[in-house]
Specification:
Blueprint (H helix, E strand, L loop, with lengths): L16 H4 L2 H10 L14 H16 L3 H14 L5 H16 L3 H13 L7 H16 L29 E5 L5 E5 L8 E6 L2 E6 L16 E2 L7 E2 L2 H5 L1 H6 L24 H16 L5 H13 L12 H10 L11 H16 L1 H6 L3 H21 E5 L11 E5 L1 H4 L2 E2 L5 E6 L2 E6 L10 E2 L10 H12 L15 H9 L1 H8 L7 H18 L6 H19 L12
Parallel strand pairs: 9-12
Antiparallel strand pairs: 1-2, 3-11, 4-8, 5-6, 7-8, 10-11
The protein binds zinc ion (3 copies).
The site of one zinc ion has 7 residues, from loops.
Length: about 550
């Protein structure tokens, strides 16, 4: 029913999706069973809450948990009322976190932010001492030793037409004619072959963790002056119109894992997050066009054109959007399942509640079009979003979670025996080789990290539930490493080291040693057929890389090896 019209007449309206499924009454009934948090006074700016968050931050700080402390100081900023001294105090305390994290430049910026916000004169000497410490460290060259040294960069020269892709990879078609990525030459383990800025990005939970617009982490965030949800990393992000639309919409910071199927991916997210993600994706593209008619024309052209057309470049946002619309949907689904329809219904309502959009979607044909647009986006996001979640922190059952969707990453095909995996960094998707790739081979990613070590029946169940997909990869075909090979891998000292080692994320050097050992192992055994041992180490490798990008120098993470 997606993109179907009421009749063949040229000016026919798109079908009313909500009527087809039994009317909005049915949808409302379904929605009533779903807890969507409504905005109430607990979402307002409130100095008492702001102060409480700062106190909680101080406790974390006292225990040496800089990440957790910083998140609480950010929460303190989000809740602080206009002109409140809580603002300057939170900036000042956050500068102390940055100092401990050896992020001296950020520390200096926060010191200035605290002063500008009217930091109390009697406390000023403390702040000045911090600034001096910072300047001294920078002078001594310590600033270079900060986190940014791990920022991922392409391991090769970028492709001429697709700068986010290394020139050892090309876009082509697989045996079935579907668009895919292929190696132009042999590529070693541990190479970054794609680093793509997200086309769509969204923060699901714990808003003090990332910039609301670009998903940068650990910035000198400034809070939205109106709501308690958004923080921005820069003037540019603050000036972005996305949050202007969203500010004041109902958000849901609570987060519930849908454990019904034991899932951890997209479907595990509370519907509220799914609704907000699709709302955000529509806002991105509505803003891209001068009028709804222009948007409609563009989308209709893209839908009608060949889905398997290989783009020649993705140099501007409209080209990216065209490619986004053509990404394969869940088994070419064109009918929405019930929960998806609820998401679309709610997103439609939410978008049309935004005064500016109510004005421009002023005709029935526009509003019908919007139903289909939201549905199409929902289906693309459902398959192609890369969800980063960094687990639970010590005092909260809400994981840090965000979603990024890139076009190039969407061209990766799935295999349960992948040769690359996806990591994320500041709203970028980063594709790293985890096995040696031969010239001409297709670049294959595993949709879910969990699949790497699961037996076939569980993989298939998961892939069906998540993607309505029946995998026919080599591993699912039963081609795996022999028992003797598995035994050899398990008795390899490198394997034993990696599976017995407790990770201490404070120790940069130990972390790097582990990463190097992962590469050694994957280089040695990665060309064998798949085995749980390879899956195990590939998983450890990509997790470590992710931690290293994020510069988790403190408390946070304990590595889990299965
Ligand atoms: Zn930003
Ligand atoms: Zn706001
Ligand atoms: Zn498979």
């Amino acid at each position: 029913m997606l993109w179907e019209k009421e009749s063949r007449k040229e000016d026919a309206l798109y079908l009313n999706m909500f009527a087809i499924s039994g009317g909005s009454a049915t949808i409302n009934e379904a929605l009533s069973g779903i807890r969507i948090e409504t905005k109430d006074s607990t979402w307002n700016k409130n100095d008492a809450v702001s102060m409480q968050r700062r106190t909680e931050g101080n406790e974390h700080f006292g225990n040496g948990y800089w990440n957790d402390a910083m998140e609480m100081y950010n929460a303190s900023l989000r809740y602080a009322e206009s002109g409140s001294k809580n603002i300057s105090l939170a900036y000042a305390n956050r500068s102390a976190c940055f100092l401990k994290m050896k992020r001296y430049n950020e520390c200096l910026i926060d010191v200035e932010l605290a002063k500008e916000a009217g930091y109390p004169a009697d406390l000023m000497p403390k702040l000045d001492r911090r600034k001096e410490k910072c300047l001294k460290a920078i002078e001594e060259g310590a600033a270079e030793a900060t986190i940014m040294k791990y920022e991922p960069i392409l391991s090769f020269e970028p492709d001429e037409h697709f700068p986010c892709m290394a020139n050892v990879v090309k876009i082509g078609r697989d045996a079935e004619g579907k668009v895919g990525l292929f190696a132009k030459e042999d590529v070693d383990v541990g190479q970054t072959i794609i680093k793509e800025k997200a086309f769509m990005a969204y923060v699901y939970s714990r808003y003090g963790w990332k910039c609301n617009v670009c998903l940068k982490e650990y910035g000198n965030f400034v809070s939205c002056s109106k709501c308690t949800v958004a923080m921005f990393c820069s003037e540019e992000c603050r000036g972005n119109s996305l949050h202007d639309y969203e500010c004041g919409l109902k958000f849901c910071e609570t987060y519930r894992l849908n454990t019904e199927h034991g899932l951890t991916g997209g479907h595990a997210f509370e519907l509220n997050g799914l609704i907000m993600r699709v709302v955000r994706s529509c806002l991105v593209v509505i803003d891209m066009f001068a009028s709804v008619d222009e948007l409609m024309n563009f989308v209709e052209q893209a839908i009608k054109s060949d889905r398997n057309q290989i783009p020649t470049t993705l140099s501007d946002v409209k080209l990216q959007y065209g490619a986004f619309l053509k990404l394969p949907l869940k088994s070419n689904f064109t009918t929405l399942e019930d929960d998806a329809l609820c998401v679309v219904f709610e997103a439609h309502k939410m978008l049309l509640d935004i005064p500016k959009l109510k004005t421009i979607f002023n005709l029935k044909k526009y509003r019908r079009f919007l139903m289909h647009l939201i549905s199409h986006h929902y289906l693309v996001l459902d398959v192609h979003s890369n969800i980063a979640s960094s687990g639970f922190s010590r005092d909260s059952n809400v994981p840090w979670a965000s979603s990024t969707t890139g076009v190039m990453v969407g061209y990766l095909s799935h295999s349960c025996a992948p040769n690359v995996l996806v990591s994320t960094f500041h709203g970028n998707s980063v594709i790293i080789t985890v096995r040696p790739v031969r010239k001409g081979q297709q670049i294959m990613n595993s949709l879910l990290l969990a699949l790497l070590t699961l037996p076939k029946d569980q993989r298939h169940k998961m892939l069906w539930l998540e993607r309505r997909m029946i995998c026919q990869c080599v591993r699912c075909d039963g081609v795996t490493a022999s028992l003797a090979q598995c035994k050899r891998m398990r008795s390899d000292p490198v394997y034993q080291y990696l599976t017995s080692k407790q990770l201490n994320p404070d120790d940069d050097e130990a972390m790097q040693t582990m990463i190097d050992k992962c590469k050694t192992f994957l280089r040695k055994y990665g060309q064998l057929q798949w085995s749980d041992e390879i899956g195990n180490i590939a998983q450890v490798y990509v997790t470590l890389t992710y931690l290293q990008y994020r510069g988790l120098m403190s408390s946070e993470t304990i590595l889990e090896t299965s």
